[in-house]
Amino acid sequence: MRPVAEGPIAERLTEAYSALPEGERAIVRVLLDDYPYAALESLRSLAARASVSPPTATRLFARLGWDGYADFQKAIRSEAREEDRSRLRQFVSGGSAAPSTFEQAADTLRSGLSGTLGSVSEPVLTAVAELLMGSGAVWTIGGPLSELAAEYLARQLAGLRPGVSRVPGPPQARARTMVDIGPRHTIVAYDFRRYSAATARFVAEARKRGAHVVLVTDAWDAPPAPHADHLIALPREAAGPIAPLTYEIAVTELVLVGCAGAAPGSADRLDEVEALTHTLG
Amino acid sequence: MRPVAEGPIAERLTEAYSALPEGERAIVRVLLDDYPYAALESLRSLAARASVSPPTATRLFARLGWDGYADFQKAIRSEAREEDRSRLRQFVSGGSAAPSTFEQAADTLRSGLSGTLGSVSEPVLTAVAELLMGSGAVWTIGGPLSELAAEYLARQLAGLRPGVSRVPGPPQARARTMVDIGPRHTIVAYDFRRYSAATARFVAEARKRGAHVVLVTDAWDAPPAPHADHLIALPREAAGPIAPLTYEIAVTELVLVGCAGAAPGSADRLDEVEALTHTLG
DNA sequence: CACCGGGTGTAACGAACGTTACGGGCAGCT
DNA sequence: AGCTGCCCGTAACGTTCGTTACACCCGGTG
Fold first, then answer.
1. Does A11 lie at the interface with B, CB-CB under 8 angstroms?
2. B-chain residues within 8 Å CB-CB of A239?
3. Would you call A2 and B244 a contact, using CB atoms and an 8 Å cutoff?
4. Facing B77 at nearest CB: one of A15, A37, A244
């Protein structure tokens, strides 16, 4: 399979990459970009694709320890053949003795995401999506790190409908924002771990003014939770040694999928945004 | 029938088989027995495996309508490439009966993340982590959406070491930034899909000044790729209907795990940051 | 400034390639 | 028996291949 399961040859190329001269790097890029099919063509067309001369390719394979291009090709072919065979028994759960730090971290992310996606219920997502597409205006807000998720939601959602903004950071600007918030508006708040008192206050005030509140957090007893109409709680145990922004982004994308589904004409809008980007850029 | 899914080429061979003379049948048998790998070797070795002469093979391909062996090989290669792609697509989009939109999206995210985490090689992560912790100064930069990942890396990395900044957006500010960039500095660039010409230019110039460049992208032939010392390529096919920021964040967190591991005293620094946050807030 | 080492492209080489031309061989038909 | 059509291998052809040799350019060093 393409990059999902790379063989040792692709790894060898990847690892050696940074130590290679420019021309040979170009070859490696072509090789990995269309792996393994680029390696099945002739050395000359390979070199042409990389815009270098054939000898440069020859030198690459020599440097990496193969006995010429034919040798390299043979290795690629047998690896592909072998990988094809083993695709059936791809239920190998890794299992190798001592997983490295990275493997541990990767596993944490994998299972954490799985838990995150499993814990959000579909009716809630549907309701949130409808709310976001049906509201008069949408504001997103987040804590020190979660604000990146808030920003992400704002940007993507703005591609689907008008009237989406970030809640500004400074108190005065927040106050000016709050003045106009009313019953037809929706606030999406991201609040995690240490929780932001400012976010809780903002959410509480917005709710008092009749706005709808969607809260993405890590616990049902988070400070702003009482003021939320819809609450998406990510499992806390998913947290690794580092803040798991991955999960926040993931559920945000889930919400966005729902929003896109609820907006039939969104493709046109996205096209127009793109055209305008070009015009203004 | 070793291959799970045979393409039309294999079918063509099978159907024509009975109408073929003995020698050409032998060729077809070899072809189908080790499909499609036998077709990737030379015509001569193919003929040898079938215990016939090379011209017999040539005649087979002419008879079946291809314009020579090279033409046949090209067809085989592109078919294999296409089949590979569609296999991944099917793998990504899931196949169970009628899953809801959200379940589909969730599966996409799950398997996409799995693919992403599987495709990044550990030595590269290690090298990047060491680079990020050992450099004089680190700058992060990203495109319209990827900049969120760049921002995330900058914020988290700043908790582990001093001298981490975002590259500013406006050209003049970028120019002022560039002036001071030199050999002991490192640039981390995120560049995806539509690719940002500005990012590519910045990276190219930085590299010219001797800075190290780490590029996180979705293809080995991305525009800034030629200027990167370390390249982390996320599988392109993993992309769903929406931009997969989840994956970018995930590999960023993987890198951060490596950085944290390379900095023993980072806990103290984080504590101090927290205390200062309280003091200044 | 001269020097040096590494990286690269151009040009030329020999080898292997796929193809074509030709002739022997064999079955089936007249 | 002779003829005919098809199949197939041998031999030679021209092409394309991967490799090597060599000269140029560039950045770093004494």
1. yes
2. none
3. no
4. A37
Euclidean distance between CA atoms B119 and A249, whole angstroms: 20
Q: If you average pLDDT over residues A125-141, what whole number do you get?
A: 92
Q: CB of A208 under 7 A from strand D?
A: no
Residue pLDDT, tens place only, A80-100: 888 777 654 433 334 444 567
Query: What tokens appear for A106 in the block?
Result: 């990767």
Residue A16 CB in 7 A reach of strand C? no
Q: Which residues are B233's β-sheet partners? A: B217
Task: Write out B185-214 in H/E/C secondary structure.
Answer: EEEEEEECCCCCHHHHHHHHHHHHCCCEEE
What is the side-by-side strand order in the sheet with A212-217?
A: A164-166, A137-142, A185-191, A212-217, A230-233
In strand D, the nucleotides that come within 7 Å of a protein beta carbon are 6-11, 16-21, 28
| Owner of token pair 């700058």 | B139
Q: What's the rounded Cα separation, in Å, for the pair A23 and A161?
A: 46
Biggest distance spanned by C-alpha atoms of chain B: 89
HSE toward the beta carbon, residue A98, CA cutoff 13 A: 1
* CB < 8 Å to A31, chain B: 220
Reported as a pLDDT band with limits 50, 70 and 90, residue A247 is: very high
The alpha carbon of residue A59 is apart from the nearest alpha carbon of chain B, in Å, by: 18
For the stretch B36-83, pLDDT in tens is: 899 999 999 999 999 999 999 999 999 999 999 999 999 999 998 887
Number of H helices, E strands in chain A: 12, 5
Task: Tell whether B89 is within 8 A of chain A (Cβ).
Answer: no
What's the CA gap between B67 and B80, in Å, rounded? 19
The rounded distance, in Å, linking the Cα atoms of B111 and A3 is 13
Q: Which of A163-172, A265-274, B126-135, B160-169 has the lowest mean pLDDT?
A: A265-274
pLDDT at B5: 45
Cβ contact, residue pair B77, A40, below 8 Å: yes
- Estimate in Å the CA A22 to C1' C7 gap, whole number: 9
pLDDT digits 0-9 by tens, A192-230: 878 899 999 999 999 989 999 999 998 777 888 888 888
Q: Is the CB of B64 under 7 A from strand C?
A: no
The pTM of this model reads 0.79
Spatial contact of B231 and B203, defined as CB atoms under 8 Å apart? no
What's the gap in Å between the CA of A179 and the closest CA on chain B? 24
